[in-house]
Fold:
Amino acid sequence: MRGKFAQVSMEYLIIVGFVLIITTPLIIIFYQHTATTNYQIITSQADKIVKKIVDNSEAVYYLGEPSKTRIKVYMPENVESIVMEDYEVCFKIKTKSGISDISQTSSVNISGDVSTSPGIHYITIEAREGYVWVDG
Structure:
């Protein structure tokens, strides 16, 4: 009788080992794919925000002072900093491989300060004498 129980236990151990050998690579592949997809989503969101800021800044600037508008954006995680100097808006995104820049050049002078905290932000874009001020 003891031999049959030992054989059943050994068969269960073999099945569990086989399942672990099959599922471990699948879990690793899933984790890597999720991380890559997450990075693509963050960069896509940041790119969309940069374009929205530049487009609205140009529109407000050409309408003239004291025009202003307010946009609603969702700030993604891992935004290291937002730099708005001269004719460029640049987001610095933190990734596993380092810092990545997402930027867009504008035809108008843009300055301002926008928070990098993740979540929903309301950004005010205001035309001033010779430049556009972005605040949020």
In short: Residues 2-135 form one domain. The first helix runs from residue 2 to 63. The chain has one domain: 2-135.
